[in-house]
Amino acid sequence: MVKYSDTIDLYDDQGKLQKSGVSLEKISPLVNAGSQKLIDLTKRTAAVNLGGVEAALKTGKIGKHQRIFGRELDLDIVKQAGSIRERMYKMLEVTEGDDTEIQELGGGKLLLCRIPTARLNAAATYDVTTTNVAACATEAIINEFDIGMFDASTVKAAIWGTYPQTMDMAGGAVASILSIPQNNEGLGYALRNVPANHAVMITNKNAMQAACLLSTFEQAGEFEMGAANGLFERAQLLGYAYQGLNANNLVYDLVKKNGQTGTVGTVVQSLVERALEDKVITPGKKGASGYVFYDTKDPMLWNGYAAAGTLAATMVNCGAGRFAQAVSSTLLYFNDLLEHETGLPGCDYGRVMGVAVGFSFFSHSIYGGGGPGIFNGNHVVTRHAAGFGMPCIAAACALDAGTQMFSPESTSKIYQDTFGQFDEFAKPIQNIIKGA
What we know:
This protein is of the alpha+beta class.
């Protein structure tokens, strides 16, 4: 049974039509096979940096900032990656032929491990992935090189980092897209706790794919935290469709129209023209000054258009300057101009503007805590928009030409070398379209 009467045409990041007349509910993370596979793999996958373990042991630099002289171990770990992989596989596998996977990448420097679904099903939280992968990697290396009892703890420290002295595996060799549950500052924030730089590197700096990846995580998070039920479900799905999935080619068309000589203001103009053409808004009463107040019979659909326009304006502005820092002011002033132009609410009914004000202060104003790329939807500043701010931040960071204090390469290179090698992560638009 069709839940909503809305249908959308889905286009890829090249502006090419892929599917027509898709029912809105088909893109929901609850039913879309592409989204569900992406989320499942996100929870079940962790990367082991074998090259990093080898280097750490050779120098004694284990943990976050520790170097212990006299505890160095000279082991050819990368050379024995195949054997280590086999040992880990036997330990991680629950039943023969299950969905356990371990792949060698980078000539054995990295292992991408996917724990079996049975382990996830038997756990309360997703940290079962990092703990099991770390434990199996530790035992595999100890057994591979016949490490004695007095050196085994050094191997363990190289893989687990400073855990349990720290809550997470600080300085360790196991990486997951997801942060540890203790870092989620509210119910249902796990999938929203993904830094923009991770999405940028995973999608190989493709702005639209990076936006889609974070939009998918953000909107799945909205469902998880109970913010997309009942009346709110359609609102979230429309915003996800038009902003994250380029529904009706809206984002692509706006960027193409304004990419050469456009500004934030001209994107506002183009969006209003498109909304009028599509009959999403209509001219309403006229004020004494001649100002026209626009009306809409579908505020949720208008919000989807506003979300798409916000992303397009970000790509036009940050793309022109090749700087990510302008994303906060774009989030603010695109929507400020849109509200003044139409008399209708901006993206996420003003919440994106609220994010922008605090975001500019925290990312690069007098506080200057870090560049936009290290922010995530779980952050105290960026969490307030219901999934519509982070996709724009990811797009801005993908278009950045090296202006950030913390570049994607410095914070997230391992995610490109591991997760970014697989289409489920690198090309989420195509896989979610396929799943619809």
